[in-house]
Amino acid sequence: MTDGTTHPAGTAVGPRAGRRHRRPAPALPAAGRGAGKQQHGGPFAYVFLIIATLVSLFPLYWTVVAASHTDTDIVTPPTPLLPGSHLIQNLKIVWDQVDMTTALVNSSIVACCVAFSTVLFATLAGFAFAKLQFRGRNALLTVVVATMTIPPQLTVIPLYQIITNVGWVGHIQSVILPSLVAAFGVFFMRQFLAEALPVELVEAARVDGANSMRIIWHVVFPIARPAMAVLGMLVFVQSWNDFFWPFIALNQQNPTVQVALAGLGSGDHTIDHAVVVTGALVATLPLLLVFAVLGRQIVGGITAGAVKS
User: Among 279, 295, 297, 298, which Cα is nearest to 107's?
Assistant: First the structure.
């Protein structure tokens, strides 16, 4: 019920009038309405992903097929596309020709030690270059990055002389110690921490009385975890697949996987390609296992740091 008063423009004023003339809320733009919704790909995207997956998996599948046939089968047209029945026999030949067990153990030790040390030292150095102020920081970082331009072949002779003088020829420490840290890892972690680690967080930790070790352990490492996982995976794969320096520093009595593969399949001036492919398959399986265990954590860490709340 109204009091009969009118607006100067001639419109009634009251509860009913207020409800009658209330403006509707403005419509959100299309981008705003779909911002919180999960985006779905069309049929073309799924077809493309399926084709890309099959193309990527085909070399691994053909490696399994070739490892299960004889050398005559895989070199004589037509090339087989289905698995055969000689896989166990080829595996026995691999283990008879080289000490594959020792090679797998050595490669695992070398790759794990190099990956762990590189991630640790690169994270510490990257934090120092990214957030700590000291004289000559930029010049020293330039020197570290410049070392990546030096071909590894130039360091072979002096490095071999050093391991000969200390008696490390044929021992896996000759492969581990020269690779404890890499310039690429330092630069990679520096670039990540420069963007992901706010300097205010470090200063707040210092105000609260935290020393450098506590800041690194409780602030730097948790923030750098995604980059550390990616760097660790890259270094592990690179160390596992490294052939040039281990081939010089080690021998067939104490090899890594790549050095052991160099001695496979040769005999009577011929090469048994099936045995070589079988050895390559054995060397690939640990990498697939590492990817299966750590792949989800790496992708999850990257996506967690890439989405803003």
Answer: 279
Residue 278 is classified by DSSP as H
Residue 290 backbone dihedrals phi, psi, to 5 degrees: -65, -40
What's the 3-state SS for 135-170? CCHHHHHHHHHHHHHCCHHHHHHHHHHHHHHCCCCC
Looking at residues 240-266, what average pLDDT do you find?
88
Task: Catalogue the long-range contacts made by 280-286 (C-beta closer than 8 Å, 24 or more residues apart).
Answer: 280/63, 281/63, 281/64, 281/67, 282/91, 282/94, 282/100, 282/104, 282/257, 283/107, 283/240, 283/257, 283/258, 284/60, 284/63, 286/104, 286/107, 286/108, 286/240
- Reduce the secondary structure of 232-273 to three states and give it as a string: HHHHHHHHHHCCHHHHHHCCCCCCCHHHHHHCCCEECCEECH
The predicted model scores a pTM of 0.78
Mention every residue, 6+ apart, whose C-beta is less than 8 A from residue 6: 12, 13
262 CA to centre of own chain: 26
**pLDDT tier for residue 44 given thresholds of 50, 70 and 90:** confident
